[in-house]
Amino acid sequence: MTAPATPSRYSHVTGWGLALPEKIVTNDDLSKTLDTSDAWITERTGIKERRIGGTTKDLAVEAGSKALQVAGLSPSDIDLLLLATTTPDKTIPATSCAVQEALGLACPALDFNAACSGFVYGLALAHGQILAGANRVLLVGAETLSRFVDWQDRTTAVLFGDGAGAVVLEASDQPGGLRSWSLAADGSLEHLLLCDLPGTIVMKGREVFRKAVAAMMAASQEALERAGITIDDINLLIPHQANTRIISTAAQRMGAPPEKVVEVLSWTGNTSSASIPTALVDAIEQGRVKPGDLLLLVGFGAGMTSAGAVLEWGS
Ligand code: UT7
Predict the structure, then answer these.
(1) What's this model's pTM, rounded to 2 decimal places?
(2) Ligand 1 geometric centre to CA of 38 (Å)
């Protein structure tokens, strides 16, 4: 599904926030209980450490609260809370309702699951609601994947981490903000990456790798075309953080130079729905995002889903 932003009402990011658990688990820590090594994990994934702990609600509340603060908004200003997560704290009710209560919001709230593409899906969903009349949407990607990892399985345990990232999207008549998006899903690929209930994450890593590169390129290309720009116009590429080799292969094939690519993977691991907003917030906090910059956000994940979006940064 692709669509350009309607040129009468725009969705700008005006607030952002990050939450990571305090506990750091290094590759050396994992090597004590698994048949693995820092050298293997670093070389094959780019991951050096990951943050573990907390609840999805608490991480989402912390990231969401920071985003409200940066936007200078009070809880009553928010018209909708969207929580992208594959790891809700409970099956019923939605974790977003607990987040809504903790943040003091008075708006509708829902969870949705598009796996690692969730945050980019969420940008498009939020924009749709802004076109329909909402003025401010709080979008959070939050995960506690450590609860669904088999800590005896070296093929997955070394990959994932916990965390949350959030943005406030505000309606504006000023051009910019979300310029375009491209969303896709292919349910025939469910067997490549899944977690039954009850159960732990299982993945066919090599196959996911191959699909991931192709999916990222297709989603990026479609989002760029929809925005009427090329990769050369992009100031920063903010990809899902699953594997540094996936990121560099896709970036190279797309023609994005390494200095334009944002990576936080080495210290976060793969945080699924939280990974793209974490990379976005880190880039902002590092001073890498300037007014007028064009950002290409691109994700892929279980489903399989994939999504790309072009975001024009406001002032
Ligand atoms: O966000 C969700 C999307 N998920 C992803 O994007 C993950 C995509 N896939 C990947 O990132 C990579 O495929 C992995 C990092 C999961 C695996 O890397 P790989 O280079 O594809 O390794 P492999 O699966 O081909 O395994 C190579 C070898 C195997 O041993 P043998 O059969 O050659 O003897 C594995 O058993 O590496 C072994 N291996 C490990 N060795 C040490 C697998 N995991 C480990 C480990 N430590 N942690």
Answers:
(1) 0.97
(2) 13
